[in-house]
């Protein structure tokens, strides 16, 4: 059939495709130490998933010159306490005219998810309850749809003298 374009529906999300909230990667994927002392990658998304890796711990110990005892674990205490948002209510009220109704979130868990995790230190902090602040100081998360939406938010921000870099919004972009 010429002249007609077929556009498939988006693939349904995989139930195992959820991102991990307290670590890099996905919820179904983690390295575990088996009773044999070998390491195994959990889940099923990677070719190595379910495969015993008997040489991984010895290699890490040798290359990094560390003992790395498998019994020395640090259980996650996620989520940490999240400081309250420092919302600029007049700004939010006016910018809502440019954005979708659900485009601004002051929800603590949304701010935590989108305002952390860029460094190993931050990942450790959120896993072990030692997060002193949510990066960007509790600024709300703004969801802008596409490049035009980002430009609208940026121009509006400059007009409000809040930011010329967009950093005031924390992780601007589509989700």
Task: Describe the protein in words.
With 175 residues, this protein is an alpha+beta fold. It folds into 2 domains: 49 residues, Double Stranded RNA Binding Domain (2-Layer Sandwich); 81 residues, no CATH class. Helix content is 26%, strand content 7%. It is built from 5 helices and 5 strands. The strands form 2 sheets. A 3-stranded antiparallel sheet has the order 1-2-3, with no helix packed on it. A hairpin with a 5-residue loop joins strand 1 and strand 2.
Condensed summary:
With 175 residues, this protein is of the alpha+beta class. It is built from 5 helices and 5 strands; from the N terminus they run βββααβααβα.
Task: Show the helix and strand layout.
Elements: E1 31-33, E2 39-41, E3 52-53, H1 56-64, H2 89-95, E4 104-105, H3 108-114, H4 120-127, E5 141-142, H5 146-159
Antiparallel strand pairs: 1-2, 2-3, 4-5
Instruction: Quickly count the domains.
Output: 2
Instruction: Summarize the biggest pleated sheet.
Output: 3 strands, antiparallel
The sequence of SSEs as H and E is: EEEHHEHHEH
Distance between the termini: 35 Å
Task: List low-confidence stretches.
Answer: 162-175
Provide the gyration radius in Å: 22 Å
Q: How are the strands of the biggest sheet laid out side by side?
A: 1-2-3
Oligomerization state: single chain
* Number of contiguous helices: 5
Number of strands: 5
Shape: elongated
**Helical residue percent band:** 25-40%
